[in-house]
Design goal:
The protein is mainly alpha-helical and about 180 residues long. The chain is about 40% helix and about 10% strand.
Length: about 180
Amino acid sequence: SIKETQAVTTCIVNNLKKEKEITDMEVYLGQGAPLDYAGLVKGSSLKMLKNQAEIVVNLTNKHGRDEPSYMMVHRLRPIIQGNCGNIVPNTTIKFIEMPSGPPTLATIVIELYSKDSTALRTMSGKIAKILSETDGLVDIDVMHDDIFTKYNLVPDKEKIIRSGLNVEQVNQIIYLAFKGMPVA
């Protein structure tokens, strides 16, 4: 939910507030940050769900601090993941530096294609395991749809009519039960 996402982002912001090199931050709940070149690279425009957020962090001038930004990210990643990663189960926290040039490292993307979704899941799991054991790689994601059981509700029209209801009323009740709607 958006409240769970907010709880995680609040924890992250509170941890980042302790850093003297950070001048300000902007939190975008349920959306990506405004689109710029870095947003194109990291897919900000694709973030539109309640369980997604971006925090844009601005640092002091690089000549006015002792620690380069990439070293700060390496230092803060385990701290923040340890403090905030367990607030909501299956939380993923990533640190992405804008692609400003060296020493920023490139993103590795591996695309798999198959008509067999089970084979795709198996292969993506194997590749993710290999990448997670590779030194220097962090924030490994496998992007695929979660498997859900799908249920079809097929109302018995005869029973509905014998109950004194009509099919439209039953459809509205079912919609209310699963999706919700304004009552008044």
